[in-house]
Amino acid sequence: MMEYDSDQVAKLYFETSFLDDQSERECPACKSIAVRAYIWRHDGGSRTVLFSYAWCKHCRRFKGWTTADTGEFTFSDPIESLPEPEREIYRRGVAKLLPKLDKLWDEGELPQTFVRARSPKKRLGK
């Protein structure tokens, strides 16, 4: 697996927000319609953060971001329903997480659904 380069990230980041459109989109590296996204929430004690991933199922490029959780939306998360030991295995790195997410996507448990809780202050992926 390789990370997207800065130009590829810019193309992903400035397209339609993954919060507004969860469908697969064109990969800026291989041009396949195979880029998927996943977001999970982590309560770090002093603050809650969002971890976001975008990856291409075809060429296996990816990018991960973190941002403060503003509480502006709720979302589904099939990984959250797993027992904690299993959940932690997936959340420790992309090598195990992305194949699991692809499996969940192919089984129809992803993409996630998002509901805005209040007026947005900041948008992920935009």
How large is the share of residues in beta strands? 25-35%
- As a percent range, the share of helical residues equals 10-25%
Shape, please? globular
Q: What is the chain-wise order of helices and strands?
A: EHEEEEEHHE
Residue stretches low in confidence (pLDDT < 50, at least 5 long) are none
Q: Trace the largest sheet across and list its strands.
A: 1-5-4-3-2
Q: How many domains comprise the coordinates?
A: 1
What's the main sheet like? 5 strands, mixed
Oligomer: single chain
In whole angstroms, the N-to-C terminal distance is: 24 Å
Question: Mind telling me the C-alpha Rg?
Answer: 14 Å
Instruction: Quickly give the structural class.
Output: alpha+beta
Question: How much is the average pLDDT?
Answer: 89
If helices are DSSP runs of H or I spanning 4 or more residues, what is the number of helices? Answer: 3
Annotation, overall tally of beta strands: 7
Summarize it.
By secondary structure, this protein is of the alpha+beta class.
Can you describe what's shown?
- With 126 residues, the protein is of the alpha+beta class.
- It has helices spanning 6-13, 84-91, 94-106, and strands spanning 2-3, 25-26, 33-43, 48-56, 61-68, 73-75, 114-116.
- The protein has one domain (2-116).
- The strands form 2 sheets. A 5-stranded mixed sheet has the order 1-5-4-3-2, with no helix packed on it.
- The protein is globular, with a radius of gyration of 14 Å.
- The protein starts with a strand and ends in a 10-residue tail after the last strand.
